[in-house]
Amino acid sequence: MAHRLYPTHIPTSPLQKLLLAGGSALMAIARPQRGDMVATMGETTAIRPVLQRLYDNMARDEGGQRLLLERPRITNTSVDRKYLRSLEEGTFGREYERFLSSLETSPDARPPVQFIDDADLVYVMQRYRETHDFTHVVLGMPTTMLGEVTVKWFEGIQFGLPMCVSGGVFGTLRLGPKHRQRFFSTYMPWVIKQGVNGRFFLSVEWEKHWETPLKQLRRQLNLDPPPTENS
Amino acid sequence: MRASSSSRLLLLHHAVNKRMPVSLTPRHLAQSPRFFATTHFGFQDVEEGEKAKKVHEVFANVAGRYDLMNDAMSMGIHRVWKNYFVHRLNPQPNWKHLDVAGGTGDIAFRVLRKMQAVKGSTGHVTVLDINQNMLDVGQARATQDATLSQERLSWVCGDAESLPFDDQSFDAYTIAFGIRNCTHVDKVVAEAYRVLKKGGRFFCLEFSQVKNPLLRMVYDQYSFQVIPVLGHVLAGDWHSYQYLVESIRRFPRQDEFRDMISTAGFQGSAYENLTFGTCAVHCGFKR
Fold first, then answer.
1. Are B103 and B66 in contact (CB under 8 A)?
2. Of A10, A37, A117, the CB nearest to B16
3. Are A68 and B2 within 8 A, CB to CB?
4. Do A23 and B233 touch (CB under 8 A)?
5. Per DSSP, which regions of chain B are E strands?
6. What is the pTM of this model?
7. Domain residue spans in chain B?
8. Which CATH class is domain B50-285?
9. pLDDT 10s digit of each residue in chain B, 287 long?
C-alpha cells in the first residue's frame, strides 16, 4: 500500500476498498445519520477513471485551472459567516448563510476525504464534497427527500460519480407515491435540463460570487430558477 | 496546461503504485537513535509519556462500542476465551479479587458469578481501569444486570503501574486484553506481585503470537485487512482499531512474557495457547 499522501489519508488495499464500499453502503442504509458512511461510500466508489475525467474537465476550464492550482477549501475558517450575514438579501452568499443556519450546520460538518490514493484527485473529491451545499442553494433545492434526490440527479448527470448516480436512482425509489409522481412530472425533466445545460459546477469559483445576486448567478451558470409548486 | 497536468498525474500514478511494504517486524528500542526514552504505540515509535495519552484517547473513543466490536472482530469467540480464562483461574468464593484494565466488566462479572454460585460466599471483586469512560460503561452494564450483587463490586479509576492499594491485599489478580496497552509491562507485573497476598495468583489473558506460518499469514491478513474496516464501519474509528492490530504484534512472545512474570518474583509461571496462539493465558503464583 502507498504511504500517506495527505494528512487525513488512510491508504487502503483493493480488498479493503471493496469491504468499505459494501460495509458503508449497508451501514448508511441502516443508520442514515452516519454521514461518515455516506462519505466513505462516495470515496470508495469514486474509481480513478471517474475522478480523472473530472480533473481533466476542470483543467480545461480557466476557473477550474485556478481551483486546481490554488486548491481553496470551504471550511469554518475560510468562510466568514459574519460577512455573509451582512450581505444583501438575495445574494448567493446571504442565501448560503441562511441555508447553513436553517440546518444548524457549518462547513466543517463535512468529513474530510480519507480513501482517495492520489494527491491530485483527492482535491476533486474534497471540492465536490465542500461545494455540495452550493449546489443546493443555486438550484434552489431544500434538503427534503425530494430536494436531495433532485440534487443527486444533477450531480449524477454532471459528475458521473457512482454514488450520485446510484443515490439518485435508489432515492427515487424511496420517495412516497405523491412525491415520486411530482418528481417524474416536474423535477426530473427540469433537473436533467439543468444538468446538461448548466456550467460544469466543479469548475465554478463559488468564493468569488458571495455578493452576486442569486438570479444573476443562475443566469451566469445557465440555470433556470427552481420549479414552483404549481408548475 | 492540460498536457503538463496529465504528465504530472502520470508521474504521480507511478509513484502511488510503487508498493511500499508495511513492516511487520517490531522495531527494537536499541535501534532508536533518540536520547530520551521511547516506546511503541502500535507501529509508531512514541515517547513514553505520549503512549499513555494516545492509549487513553483510543479507549475513550472505543468505550461505547467496545463490546460490539469485540463480538464483531472475534465473531463471538472472545466470550469463549474469557469463559475458559475464568475457568482456569478457578475463583474461590471468599476471595478478594482484583481485575485490572477491567473496564467494561467482562472478567469481573464472570468471577463474581462463580463466587455467587457458592452459598454463603463473602468474595468481592474490585475492577480497576485507567479510563473512566470504560468504567462508566462497565458500571452501566452491572446495574442493568439483576443477576449480579452490586454491593460485591467496586469500581476504581487508577493506573496499573501504580496501584492505589496496599501490599498483599488481594487473593487473585487478573488482567485481560489490557497489559499490552501499558507503557511498562514489567512495572504492571511488579505491582501485581506487590498487591497479591502470599498464596495469591496472577492470571493474564492477552493476544499473543501465532506460531504456525500458514495460520499466521491468514491471521495477519484478517487483522490488517478486515479489522480496521470493521472499526470504521461499526464504530466510526479506523485508527483505534489499526492501533489494536499493530499493538498485538508489538507485545512480547509467549515465552518472553512468561520469563517476565518469573522475573517479578512469581513462581511456577506458565502459559497456555488458545486458538493457535491468537491469545494466551499466562499465570504465576506468589508462594
1. yes
2. A117
3. no
4. yes
5. 38-41, 44-47, 96-100, 124-129, 153-157, 170-176, 196-207, 267-274, 279-285
6. 0.81
7. 5-41, 50-285
8. alpha beta
9. 344 444 444 444 443 333 333 333 333 333 333 345 677 777 777 777 788 888 887 777 777 788 888 888 899 999 999 999 999 999 999 999 999 999 889 999 999 999 999 999 999 999 999 999 899 999 999 999 999 999 999 999 999 999 999 999 999 999 999 998 899 999 999 999 999 999 999 999 999 999 999 999 999 999 999 999 999 999 999 998 998 899 888 899 999 999 999 999 999 999 999 999 999 999 999 99
